[in-house]
Design goal:
The chain has two domains: 2-50, no CATH class; 104-260, Beta Barrel (Thrombin, subunit H). The protein is elongated, with a radius of gyration of 40 Å. The protein has helices at residues 2-10, 12-30, 34-50, 52-103, and strands spanning 107-116, 124-127, 140-143, 146-154, 159-163, 171-176, 180-188, 191-198, 208-211, 223-232, 238-244, 254-260. A six-stranded antiparallel barrel has the order 1-2-5-4-3-12. A hairpin with a 3-residue loop joins strand 6 (171-176) and strand 7 (180-188). By secondary structure, the chain is of the alpha+beta class.
Length: 264
């Protein structure tokens, strides 16, 4: 307490001034005259003006926090929408596969796609079925919209599928309604090339393409795609076709493996 006494004594002029100022302000604002009321209003306006920057900063912080919450909510809604759309796409693929299974007479093993294959020399992906499911090498792999590929490595519980998009993949196909037969190979994106088509064959844009009767692996009449371009080869009795598949390989999640061909 002694230090407090010395501090007050040393600054007694300042302390006295502050006490007198507080007393004056108290007396001044305790009155109710018109002049006092006007002074109160002006003082209040002055302090309101001085508080504007802090009020603005506080409001900005509140808006920034609210904006962050809204961005977070927006992101959550986007993710939820993507999840719903993905489920809808998955349901459509499953419904398509079920309808395809009802229509055909072969023994079909359903499989899920589990990423790309490990072989660098073959364009492939892995599926979750293998020998214990009856799968063997060179079993056709299909969906309702067309040929996907064939099994080329088969394990107990998983298999690797050589895709139609592999540069070395070949498939004997026929074009309806002409019945012309040719050899299919991959071009790019979801397009293939069909060669060895006779120039005399009557083929139009939009004609549908199916597997032919000349394959030792694929049963006939599996859908492959549709004709989107026709090219005459100069100095040859043949023409080339460009085919577009009905699906995108990169979006496939489920496929069927044909393990029993019941064609006669």
């Amino acid at each position: 307490m002694r230090w407090l006494y010395f501090a007050l004594h040393k600054n007694k002029d300042h302390v006295l001034f502050i006490l007198l100022l507080v007393l004056s302000v108290t007396i001044l604002f305790s009155g109710h005259s018109l002049e006092i009321n006007q002074l109160r209003i002006r003082v209040g306006e002055f302090f309101s003006f001085t508080e504007l920057p802090s009020t603005w900063l506080s409001s900005k912080r509140i808006l920034s926090a609210e904006n962050s919450r809204l961005r977070e909510k927006n992101m959550q809604l986007k993710l939820l929408l993507e999840s719903v759309l993905n489920l809808e796409s998955e349901n459509q693929q499953l419904r398509s596969l079920l309808e395809f299974k009802k229509k055909v007479g072969w023994t079909l093993v359903p499989a899920s796609v589990h990423g790309k294959g490990v072989a660098t020399t073959v364009t492939s992906f892995k599926i979750d079925v293998g020998r214990q499911d009856g799968v063997q090498v060179n079993n056709p792999v299909v969906i309702g919209d067309g040929v996907v590929g064939k099994t080329y490595l088969v394990g107990e519980t998983t298999s690797l599928v050589q895709l139609i998009s592999d540069p070395d993949f070949r498939l004997s196909v026929k074009i309806n309604p002409s019945g012309a037969v040719g050899i299919l190979s991959w071009l790019e994106s979801n397009r293939c090339e069909i060669k060895e088509i006779p120039k005399s064959a009557s083929i139009k844009i939009g004609d549908l393409v199916y597997t032919s009767n000349y394959s030792d692996i694929y049963p006939p009449n599996l859908p492959v795609g549709k004709v989107v371009a026709i090219y005459d080869e100069r100095g040859s009795f043949q023409k080339r076709l460009t085919l577009e598949t009905f699906f995108n390989i990169g979006t496939l999640q489920y496929v069927f493996v044909i393990i029993d061909d019941e064609r006669e």
